[in-house]
Amino acid sequence: MDKDRVKAFAEKVYADMAGTMAVGMAYVGVKTGLFRAMEGKGAMRAGEVVAAAELQSRYVEEWLKGMTAAGYLHYDATADSYRLPDEHAFLLASEGTDHFMGGLFYFAPTLLRVAPNVAEAFRTGGGVKFEEFGSEGVVALDMINSGQYENRLASHWLTKLPDIAERLQSGGRVLDVGCGVGRVGMAIAKTFPKCEVIGLDPDAETIRQAQAAATKAGLGGRMQFVAKTTDTLERGAGFDLITACDCVHDFSAPGKTLAELRHLVKPDGALFIVEPKAADDLQDNINPIAAMYYGMSIFHCMTQSLADGGPGLGTCLGPRRTMELLRTAGFEKVQLLDIRSQTNLFYAARP
Ligand SMILES: C[S@@+](CC[C@H](N)C(=O)[O-])C[C@H]1O[C@@H](n2cnc3c(N)ncnc32)[C@H](O)[C@@H]1O
Q: How many beta carbons lie within 10 A of that of residue 53, not counting itself?
């Protein structure tokens, strides 16, 4: 055995555990508004942070030290002051933008809370159902994705389907499947005020949050959210555009659901899919983003599908299998879209 390699790996284990603790502390920073309280303020003494955030001093003092040790804050020993660098605030105190990363921290406690149940499922099969993640799980998913949907979906991503975008200017029907808190549908409803938008999700808590969010955005009257699955949805005249964002890999019956979407889309319509960015082969997935996605898969995406009797496709489904699924479901034109993203892949599928 190579002792240096043992030592190097021990360092990695400590670094990973430190990363986990940093994520927990950063969760507190987002949830309590500590990052917001320090944003753009320059150097602050601990008492000033306590006053600005209106929190308990002993907790804040320890948090400031922990976040400094983890590299999130800069500490000036002479002045005994802490600073949240602007570049860090850009990612940590920027809720609602497409560069906010705090939703990831929000997701971590939700994921690790179910780790004992998931470990048990390794032995017994089954898994943790979507609804068992609770309302904070729904909020976390929304925090991860909403900034991109609000700032990029209609203005950038959908321009890659120019015929559909043009049609939606004058009307048309849109279905957002696995709609979560409804940001995709809301972004489309805002950009294309003449079209009809329906959000569909089987999870009742999700639909409750979507209805509340649409009402808050003043879109309640224009949008419809249904706690349904695609097999119980009325086709009507069919849909010009169906969106399925960050959910195909979650489906418990992916082949059946995609075939139902094929039936729901108009002959000249399109299905637009956003999926986590992962390579087809494991040897190309040895990087931090894929490691993060495999963890999300085990503690959320895969387990909730397996819990529902599904195949547990997992977060790192990859383009080859995604496109195969779409073709098998009856979509003849399947395309990986040319949209650059660090974390997502985009597909268009047409009958
Ligand atoms: C990771 S969340 C994504 C939510 C939202 N689209 C977003 O991007 O933030 C996956 C969603 O798919 C929904 N879902 C799971 N199976 C589904 C199915 N068969 N049909 C429709 N939605 C489904 C879940 O309830 C959940 O809200």
A: 19
SS3 200: strand
Q: Cα(244) to centroid of ligand 1, in Å?
A: 8
Percent of the chain with pLDDT over 90: 97
| 41/88 Cα distance (integer angstroms) | 13
pTM of whole model > 0.85?
yes
Cα–Cα distance, 188 to 205 (Å, whole number): 22
Q: Which CATH class is domain 108-350?
A: alpha beta
Amino acid at 175: L
Whether 222 shows a pLDDT value over 90: the answer reads no
CB 141 less than 6 A from any atom of ligand 1: yes
The domain limits of the chain are: 3-93, 108-350
Write the residue with the smallest CA distance to atom 11 of ligand 1: 178
| Amino acid at position 193, single letter | P
Please say whether the structural domain 3-93 has been given the CATH code 3.40.50.300. Answer: no
Say how many Å lie between the CA of residue 177 and the centre of ligand 1.
7
